[in-house]
Amino acid sequence: MTLPDDPWLREAFARLRRADRAGAPSLTAVLAARPGPGRRARLTALAWAGAAVTVALLAAAGQRAGQEWSAARSAAQIAQVLGPFGEVPWRSPTDGLLRTPGYALLVATPTITIADSLMKSVP
Amino acid sequence: MDDEPRDLQGELERLHQDSYGWALACCRRRPAEACEVLHAAYLKVLEGRARFGGRSAFRTWLFGVIRRTAAEHRRREALLRLRLITLGDASEPRDSAPGPADRVERADQAARLASALARLSRRQREVLDLVFYHDLPISEAAAVMGVGVGSARRHYERGKARLRALLAPS
Fold it and tell me: What is the span of the domain harbouring residue B170?
């Protein structure tokens, strides 16, 4: 098998160069060329995609702001309905059941008082 | 330093054929893609977005601009393939339909070389194209490719050996 040498390669490249030059467009044609319709369409699609993303982000931000506003409004309405009672600490409705006879002894320390008459009788 | 050629468009005109050949090499020999890359590269030069610093020959610099523009184009195409960017229409003209350059190319033995080149690595393809097609010395090819001379020489030797094997008559 004989491998092509450098002159052979040069000749092959020269043939390729001649073929390329035969089909080369002029400089004016290259400079006058505008981006093809496909590229324009890609740019348009990209612009549309960007616009869609922007709209989606704005919608999400708007929705979140709306939720926060309605939550704040609900809190304000509740405060308005409760009025001054809104500040009373919460108590369980069954709290009264725990108040059995003698309950006070359980939660209070008894004080021992000695009557004066009793003190006088002490020698 | 103002080493910019006074008549940029005249310089581009003078080198246009070579530039087109180099753009083809950078674009896997697809004429439509090469024209798009060349258009973008010429605009960069004419609008001053790429400025010639006079550190090399104007052609070497221009080839570097074309190479970088082709690389940007490839990256964009890769993104499109990964569908990170929404695809536009399917009616975009692709290179499947042979243009006049393709028809001539396929009719010629050059097509064999083109298909063999397509099987080399990008660096090997680039250095061989710059040396054999554009008659640049390896040092200038290295400057265009943005690699060291030693690296360019390695790509040149390996690429040439592989190309010879691919083109050898069986």
Answer: 108-170
